[in-house]
Structures are given as C-alpha cells and as structure tokens.
Amino acid sequence: MRNKIIIAVSALLCIGAFFILPVYDDFYYLSSPHKSLDMESLLPNGSFWRPIDALWGGIIAGKLVSLFPFLNHLLVILCFAYASYGLIKVLKYCNVGGFSLSLAMSMFMLSPALVATTYSIDATNQALSLAFGIGSLSMYRKHKPASYLLMALSLFSKESGIAWFVVTPLLSMVIEHGFHDGKKIDKSEYMLLIKPYCISIIAIMAYAALRYSLNIPVETAAGYTDRYTPHIGLNNITSLCIITGLALTVVDTIALFIEHNFAVVGITALVSVITILIIARKSYSKANLSSGLPLIVCILAISSPHMIMSHPSEMHIYPSLWMIALTVGVLTKDARWKRGEVAVASLFIACGVLVFMHKGYYMYVNGKIADKRVTSAVSHSKGIPEKVCVLDCDRQLPAYSVFQIDGKRCWDSGKGTRLRFDLENPKTVTYHVIDAKALRKYIDTYTNKDSTYNALWIVKDNNVEVIDIPSSADK
Length: 475
Hints:
Layout: H1 2-15, H2 51-63, H3 70-93, H4 98-109, H5 115-118, H6 124-140, H7 144-157, H8 164-180, H9 187-191, H10 194-214, H11 222-227, H12 234-248, H13 253-259, H14 262-283, H15 286-307, H16 318-331, H17 339-379, E1 387-392, H18 407-410, E2 428-433, H19 439-446, E3 455-460, E4 463-468
Parallel strand pairs: 1-2, 1-3
Antiparallel strand pairs: 3-4
Helix pairs in contact: 1-4, 3-4, 3-6, 3-16, 4-16, 4-17, 6-7, 6-8, 8-15, 12-15, 12-16, 14-17, 15-16
C-alpha cells in the first residue's frame, strides 16, 4: 500500500510538468521545433553532440509545432516512468523490500532534485540518456550486443551517457553476484570484467575519433561554452559535493537563493542531515563492505561527466540521483527500521514533496511570464518582423538555474516569438532594459526616418506594445 501511494504521488507531481511553458533556451534548443532538419546540428560541435535531440526537433517537434511543448513533456515523463520502473525492478531483484524499498523509491521518485529535469522542456536529452542507460543494464546479462547499442544511444542522447560504458558491466556484476545471490564478490568475478571493459574502451575510442573527425566549429556564447569546458582539480570535489548534496537532501534551494527564507532552509536541512545519518547507520555492515565499494565507484562514474564541469546545475543531478537511490536501497535492505526512524524518514519524504511543489511552481510562473510576453508581441503584430528593437521597462527578476530567469532572457530576448511566427523571424533582435522614464527618448531614437527596424516592442508590466516602423521606401 505504501509503495502504491509513492507511485500515485509521483504520478500526480508529474502531471504538473504539462503546465510548464517554454523559457530561455527551450525556444531554440535542438529539441525545440525547427523549420527543417539542419544537418550541421547532427554533427559534434565543441562540447555537444546530441543527434537524437536534433532529430526530434527537426522531424517530430518541427512538424508538430502546435503540440510543443506537450510532446517534449510527454517524452521526458515517459522516460522518467521507465527509470522509476527500472529502479523498482532492480531493487526487487536485489531482494530489497519493506521500508528500505519505499525509502529508495521515494528518494528518486519524489526528490525535489527531479524537478529541474522532469519539468524542463529541453530535458529530453537527460531523460533519454538515463532511460537508455537503465535499458543497457537490464539487457546486459542476457543480450550484450543490445546492451552496448543502448549504451551508445545513451551517449548520443547526451555526452554524459558515456559513463554507462563503465557503469553497466560493473553494476550488473555487483547486482547479480553481490545482492541477488547474496554472496561475497570474489576476485574471479572482477576478472570477468576485463573483456567487457576492453569492448567499452574500444567503443569510447571510436566515439572520440568520430567526434574529432566530424567536429564543426559553431559560435556559442562564451559563458555558456565555458561552463561545459572540462576542469580538473579541486573543482571536481566541489561539484561532487553539489551533486551528492542535492541528491541526498531535500534542502529548499528556492528558499535559499531566491526567497532568502532561512527558516525553511534550516528545517529542510535539519531533516535532511538527520535522515542521512540514519541511512548511514543502517547501511554500515561488514557484509556491505565488499559490495558497497563498487556501488560508490558507480556513483562516481555516473557523476563524473558533471563533476568536471565548472558548476553542475540541478538538472545534472538526475542520473546520480537514480544511482544513489539504488545504493541506499540495497545497502539498507537487511536493516531493521525502528518506528522513530521511519517517522523521521517519512518527514524527510514529506518535506521533499513540498519542496518539489515549491520548485515546480516557480518554473510554472516563469513560463507564464515568458508566454505572456510572446503572446502579447505576436497578437499585436500586423506582420512578421525580420528585425526588432525591444525596450524592456520592467524590473528584472534575479535568475536561478531553470526555476527563475530574468525578463530579458526568459523569452529568449524576444526571439521566442519565432515559434508563433514562422520559426525563423525575427532574425535580429536588439534588446534594451531601460528606465521607463527614458522611454520617450528611446522611442524617438529607434523610430526615426533612418531606422532599420521593422518594429519596436515596448515591454511594460509584462505586456508588449508594438509600434510598427515603416520601411524607408514607405516613408
């Protein structure tokens, strides 16, 4: 009954994703609607090579623009449902039951660290990558060629999918011989990993060679590119702490970084710390030492692509969260839970649900802001402008991750209107965040007889007033 409630609550939380509207890079990312399939987007450029997203945006979303972002949300939620099913299936195969099963399920399916992925329109890559990775794990023991194909699909969904070439062989062995059979893993089992890891190394080398030979230079904003440039050093420890901290806790980061509500932060942090201490105590046993170490290696491996980033965001917690939830489940499967411990862990789960809803609400509000600007600009336009000047008189909101974007960027500096126009225009947008008192001066400047703009968009109280500017031939 308890597990059915967890599944039901998770399903209800997932429904909220369909109310989230596009903001920022949702308007132009590979998986958003594109007029045609750009062959260059199928090739690697810089830090990125995500051909599956490019195919989705150019073929599926591009031909069904009216169903955007519904189809993207549907794909992400279906992948999450499969990831949840895969977690439950593996836990039960490892003979995990009782409250340990419920806790592990909750840590993945109800975690507030999920929101940045399951509610994000552009999270198709992250969702598919984990789904294909879990698929490779389920197929590995009996169908290795299919398993390696799924690892490759995970990699071509998102670069971090490369970790499954390391994780799948090791995790499959640990699950089969350490937790399903209940035996101590001996050296001979590890020796059997030599052949599959040789295959993995060859696959990784082939991928690297292919990336190098096919790579094309593409201009990208410096800050956006730098964030994904690999960094080695103390930064990796900081990134690991961010990843594990967000995955293991229910700390309300919205209350911390946006609202500065330190009472909420303190409560969620305290509940998290106490629960982590209980889990650590329940996980420790001599029997877990031999099988627990490879699980830690799997956590490090699945997190490593995001550890080398300058700063991982909440969206990047997703695959690590799955692996950590699995680890908690199998390491506590023989634990006897006292009533007080169950009560504390249940409070932890309840806090997680509330923080989940809090984060989801911020994404909903941010999407509504962007949608109102886009809808207003499009409805007030007489035609489709090619070159636009935007004068934004509104106060800019502080930005935090995917949950709140400032007014300028939330509608892609006005270019988000392309999805309502012809997927191409406006081609050029000049954006100015101004003081409303200086508006008249800017209007006179940008609507003069020498103006090269087709329209002037004035943002006030999140509404867009449109001033059409005649071409020089019409003046």
